[in-house]
Amino acid sequence: MIGKQSSRVKPQEKIAARVASAVTANLLSLSLSETHKTITIDEYIVKIHPISTQSRTPSRKFVAFDLDGTLITTKSGHTFSRGPNDWTWLNDKVVPSLQSITLPIVIFTNQGAVIAQKTSKSLSNFTKKCKLILDAMKEAGIDVSNVWIYASPKMGKTYKGKNEAEFTKMRKPEIGMFEHLLKDGVLEDVIKEECVYVGDAAGRATDFSDSDKKFAQNCDIPFKTPEEYFV
């Protein structure tokens, strides 16, 4: 007589199922445009990535930028953006420079005014602005299928997750966003000395911080200011 197989779920399987469920619950992926999707992980990082990457071979080099004050500035002249439409390119050299890049273009940005919750207006405004920037890039002939955005939001007062430390790890000059890039399959066997990170927070007398310069140092990649890169 052939015995019946037990239908009981083993403890290990229960644990694996709970872990998989937790990961799924903490990761939200939404379509942003025809080319990109928005991914949030437990509110501590926002990624805006190309939808299709199947035919792309991982690169050994990349060119990375800060966003505000490096690629763009406010159209209104205010220090901080007043909405998704309140942006313009930093200067007339940015677009030609981006057009000449054949490597992955990566943006690492601290977004201290953004809370990455589903119903957050600040998150909606930020992703809308990124969509407009990507649309402008595409219109200018830049290969947006190779543009990757990583944003470090702030921890909301109502955050109830268990990853408080991750918010600090993601914020430049910490290298959490760079570590996510390395895990995301964009790069392989990176030749760091042939990459570059461009940012305006360089610790100069008129700068608000040196977080961009230290971020590059912590990632062990060369650093340039916008004035040095966009020539």
Briefly characterize the structure.
With 231 residues, the chain is of the alpha/beta class. The chain has seven helices and ten strands. It has a single domain, classed as HAD superfamily/HAD-like (Rossmann fold, 3-Layer(aba) Sandwich), CATH 3.40.50.1000.
Task: Describe this entry's structure for a reader.
This is Polynucleotide 3'-phosphatase. One of its GO terms (molecular function) is polynucleotide 3'-phosphatase activity. The protein has a single domain, classed as Rossmann fold (3-Layer(aba) Sandwich), CATH 3.40.50.1000. It has 231 residues and is α/β, with parallel strands linked by helices. It has helices spanning 11-26, 94-99, 121-139, 164-170, 176-183, 211-219, 226-229; strands at residues 27-31, 36-41, 45-50, 63-65, 72-73, 88-89, 105-111, 147-153, 196-198, 223-224. 30% of the residues lie in helices and 19% in strands. β1 (27-31) and β2 form a beta hairpin. The chain has 7 helices and 10 strands. It starts with 10 loop residues before the first helix and ends with a helix. Residues 1-7 and 13-25 have low confidence and may be disordered. An 8-stranded mixed sheet has the order 1-2-3-8-7-4-9-10, sandwiched between helices. Strands 5-6 form a two-stranded antiparallel ribbon.
